């Protein structure tokens, strides 16, 4: 007969473990739906109990009790038989939180039809069921199971009585007894399916029918065995050995089937636990950064309680305790499900928490040494399964299971094997979760200072800016950063940045969101602050950052500027993090004349209007010839031959005059118009190269690429089309790209670069030395040239550190056979030093400033002569 298991449980059969979970099956917190499910189940319990009592009264009135005090022992004997049959049950999981136990309770029930009246069988059944519940320490569903017990027996005797009346005759016909016995598991199953519906658990109709059919088959086999045994014994008193042999054979069959079901349930439990931990880690990784600070992710205990509940149900344990260390330097966090844990904190030398290895240990209070016995008594447990969770010899936690409840016996070898395998899966999942947490932390934090980075600040500040009207965003710039970098090198500048970050954190306190945006620029979020208070905080921060910085044995004088923007400055203006940061940035740029702290005012929005005008007018400016291309020559070292030119864009605006590329190129790129700009520069450069080819000269042209160009899968086809239209060999075209541009999305950029390289186009890494520079990085990219950033070249004559950096880059570039180009060559000494190092190409003001096409032609004619040759292989030689 089906009966509950692992939660509410009865002796001969109620329907199910029908408790709605307190948490979502995959680690979510308690929801309104779960609480509503529990309320509906309480109402359903009252209905089942009331229906059971009413049915019992009705059947008792219909089948009056016939007293026979000589047979007083039948009732206790039936109760004992029900209890014994209960202990041989086979547990079958149906859905999460819902399971049946197939038992032999139909055998004493069918015999009860022949030897006892309705009231005695009913009392024996209810007493055995309630006793089993109490023995297993299950008290949460006693009323539901009691009502189910009543309905099972009353429906069985009602059907048996109807069949008996239809057949007629004396005594209880075996057909009536068989029909009544089969009615009991059918009633139990219908109650269970109704409970599934009440709890809104999903179960297909085909699954319900298949389950009902199997339960009826098992019930028929049990009832047939009991009925056959009774009839044989009643007519052949010496048939006990035969009946006993049949019973033992059937028991062996059930136990074999039970082992198969156990293996299936164990595999499902392993899968569930691993999936719960994995989804818990994914949910933690998906939480907004507003639920984190600079010190790690918030831990949701309810997620782990759900996992512990699943382990507890599978082991049928009275209590499961998870002790987890979710962060490397974190203390153990304890999660308890089941019976409450006595309020005794385990000592540091607790023998159950310092187990070696990663194997399951089984402790019984009757067999343990005094130290372990004391630890079990502190936990209020008679026995325990304990297994450490380890990964790479690192203790991640400990799992404890206390006091098995589903059998009178304790934990067995199957439980030990299951918990060991679960612990292995759990340790692996925990390790992966910690890895995800680390990756997420790195994604939202600056590696140098440990503060939030721009994406992290965006996540943290998003909700407060929307929900708290009195907020302010501050941008703090340490404006001596570039000077320190040029004078002392980036290592010392980084030290200053770290020191500045510590000063800001100490001034603001631990609860204020603080981020490093880039370089020596920081952002601060102030919540519930008036503009006057924000200004006061900005002044205090500027004063702290402007104090001298001890660098080695020097005291570096510093200066800081702060710009801030408050919410609610413009009516109806949407508040978003990027917009507030942009306003604070504008305020920083507006600091002039010794005023180091400025608040954003709407009039500063003219800067945004100017950028908007530039973006909207850009295409028209291309068509009207306002945008032109200038060329800066590059010469080889040491023979001073013109190797090529770099194409540089210039914009002569009719209203704003000559615009610096640093002003309009980022705006054009952000507006998605960089493709049009790149195409314009590319065509102008190829047209110039074609003219030189027609004149018999081979001079290459270099064009700068944007990150967005490297994300355009159609870009290589467009370049190939342009090369064919101008009939320019691909080796005379060079594309220059920055390290940060490639590494911002290498999976999208690398295929584009490889396709361009396969066309024969020369690829160069611009600003080399300022980003991810390494030999492994160079080998990963399909590049032909590296360009040393001009900041190093400019400082070579006075800074031995810059000189060493340049020499290292030259050697690093030559190692895989690349051409090394030096930018920013403005002095003879720099050129001579580069030539001595073996640098291949030089570019800079010493050679020439960027020139328009007409001035470039004049420059070439004035400073070069044609080398011998009649065809395009001729080169130009720079005269000195």
TrEMBL record:
Domain of life, source organism: Bacteria
Keyword Transmembrane helix: yes
Bilayer-crossing regions: 43-64, 71-90, 110-135, 142-163, 175-199, 211-233
Keyword Phosphoprotein belongs to the record: no
Keywords: Membrane, Transmembrane, Transmembrane helix
Record-linked InterPro entries: Cyclic-di-GMP_PDE-like (IPR050706), EAL_dom (IPR001633), EAL_sf (IPR035919), GAF (IPR003018), GAF-like_dom_sf (IPR029016), GGDEF_dom (IPR000160), Nucleotide_cyclase (IPR029787), Rev_trsase/Diguanyl_cyclase (IPR043128)
GO terms for MF: cyclic-guanylate-specific phosphodiesterase activity
Domain GGDEF, first and last residues per copy: 469-602
Region feature (Disordered): 1-30
Listed Pfam families: EAL, GAF, GGDEF
SMART domains: EAL, GAF, GGDEF
Domain EAL per the UniProt entry, residue ranges: 611-864
Protein name according to UniProt: Diguanylate cyclase (GGDEF) domain-containing protein
């Amino acid at each position: 007969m089906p009966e509950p298991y692992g939660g509410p449980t009865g002796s001969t059969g109620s329907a199910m473990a029908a408790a709605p979970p307190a948490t979502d099956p995959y680690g979510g917190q308690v929801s309104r739906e779960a609480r509503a499910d529990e309320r509906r189940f309480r109402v359903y319990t009252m209905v089942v109990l009331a229906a059971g009592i009413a049915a019992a009264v009705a059947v008792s009135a219909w089948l009056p009790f016939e007293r026979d005090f000589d047979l007083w022992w039948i009732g206790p004997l039936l109760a004992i038989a029900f209890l014994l049959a209960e202990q041989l049950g086979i547990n079958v999981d149906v859905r999460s939180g819902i399971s049946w136990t197939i038992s032999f309770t139909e055998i004493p029930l069918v015999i009860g039809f022949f030897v006892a009246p309705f009231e005695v069988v009913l009392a024996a059944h209810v007493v055995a069921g309630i006793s089993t519940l109490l023995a297993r320490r299950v008290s949460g569903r006693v009323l539901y199971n009691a009502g189910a017990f009543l309905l099972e027996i009353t429906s069985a005797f009602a059907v048996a009585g109807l069949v008996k009346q239809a057949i007629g005759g004396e005594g209880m016909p075996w057909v009536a007894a068989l029909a009544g016995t089969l009615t009991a598991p059918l009633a139990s199953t219908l109650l269970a399916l109704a409970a599934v519906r009440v709890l809104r658990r999903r179960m297909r109709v085909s699954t319900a029918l298949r389950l009902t059919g199997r339960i009826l088959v098992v019930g028929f086999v049990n009832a047939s065995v009991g009925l056959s045994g009774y009839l044989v014994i009643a007519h052949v008193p010496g048939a006990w050995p035969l009946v006993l042999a049949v019973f033992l054979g059937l028991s062996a069959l059930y136990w074999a089937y039970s082992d198969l079901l156990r293996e299936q349930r164990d595999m499902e439990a392993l899968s569930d636990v691993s999936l719960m931990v994995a989804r818990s880690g994914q949910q933690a990784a998906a939480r907004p950064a507003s639920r984190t600070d600079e010190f790690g992710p918030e831990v949701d205990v309810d997620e782990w309680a759900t996992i512990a509940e699943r382990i507890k149900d599978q082991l049928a344990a009275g209590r499961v305790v998870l002790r987890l260390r979710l962060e490397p330097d974190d203390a153990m966090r304890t999660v308890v499900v089941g019976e409450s844990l006595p309020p005794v904190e385990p000592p540091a030398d607790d023998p159950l928490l310092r187990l070696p290895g990663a194997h399951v240990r089984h402790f019984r209070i009757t067999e343990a040494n005094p130290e372990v016995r004391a630890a079990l008594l502190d936990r209020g447990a008679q026995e325990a399964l304990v297994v450490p969770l380890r990964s790479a010899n690192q203790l991640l936690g400990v799992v404890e299971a206390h006091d098995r409840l589903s059998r009178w016996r304790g934990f067995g070898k199957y439980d030990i094997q299951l918990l060991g395998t679960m612990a292995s899966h759990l340790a692996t999942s925990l390790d992966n979760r910690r890895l995800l947490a680390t990756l997420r932390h790195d994604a939202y934090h600056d590696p140098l200072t440990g503060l939030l980075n721009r994406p992290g600040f965006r996540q943290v500040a998003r909700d407060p800016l929307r929900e708290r009207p009195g907020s302010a965003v501050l941008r703090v710039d340490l404006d001596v950063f570039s000077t320190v970098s040029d004078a002392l090198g980036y290592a010392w500048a980084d030290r200053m940045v770290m020191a500045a970050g510590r000063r800001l954190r100490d001034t603001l306190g631990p609860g204020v969101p603080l981020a490093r945006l880039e370089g020596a620029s920081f952002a601060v979020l102030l919540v519930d602050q008036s503009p006057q208070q924000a200004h006061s905080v900005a002044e205090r921060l500027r004063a702290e950052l402007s104090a001298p910085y001890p660098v080695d044995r020097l005291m570096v004088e510093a200066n800081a500027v702060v710009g801030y923007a408050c919410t609610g400055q413009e009516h109806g203006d949407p508040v978003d993090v990027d917009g507030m940061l942009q306003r604070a940035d504008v305020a920083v740029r507006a600091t002039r004349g010794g005023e180091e702290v400025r608040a954003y005012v709407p009039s500063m929005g003219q800067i945004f209007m100017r950028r908007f005008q530039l973006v909207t007018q850009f295409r028209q400016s291309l068509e009207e010839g306002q945008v032109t291309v200038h060329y800066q020559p590059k010469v080889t070292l040491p023979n001073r031959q013109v190797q090529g030119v770099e194409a540089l864009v210039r914009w002569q605006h009719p209203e704003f005059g000559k615009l610096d590329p640093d002003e309009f190129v980022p705006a054009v790129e952000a507006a998605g118009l960089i493709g049009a700009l790149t195409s314009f520069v590319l065509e102008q450069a190829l047209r110039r190269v074609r003219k030189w080819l027609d004149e018999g000269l081979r001079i290459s042209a270099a064009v700068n690429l944007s990150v967005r160009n490297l994300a355009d899968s159609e870009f290589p086809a467009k370049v190939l089309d342009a090369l064919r239209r101008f009939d320019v060999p691909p080796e005379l075209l060079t594309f220059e790209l920055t390290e940060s541009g490639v590494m911002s999305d290498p999976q999208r950029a690398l295929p584009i670069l490889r396709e361009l390289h396969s066309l024969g186009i020369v690829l160069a890494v611009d600003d080399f030395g300022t980003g991810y520079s390494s030999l492994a990085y160079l080998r990963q990219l399909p590049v032909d040239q590296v360009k040393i950033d001009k900041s190093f070249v400019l400082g070579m004559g006075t800074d031995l550190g810059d000189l060493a950096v340049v020499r290292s880059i030259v050697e690093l570039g030559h190692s895989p056979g690349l051409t090394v180009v030096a930018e920013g060559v403005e002095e003879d000494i720099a050129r001579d030093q580069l030539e001595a190092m073996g640098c291949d190409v030089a570019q800079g003001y010493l050679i020439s400033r960027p020139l328009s096409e007409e001035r470039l032609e004049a420059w070439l004619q004035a400073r070069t002569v044609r080398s011998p040759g009649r065809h395009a292989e001729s080169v130009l030689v720079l005269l000195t």
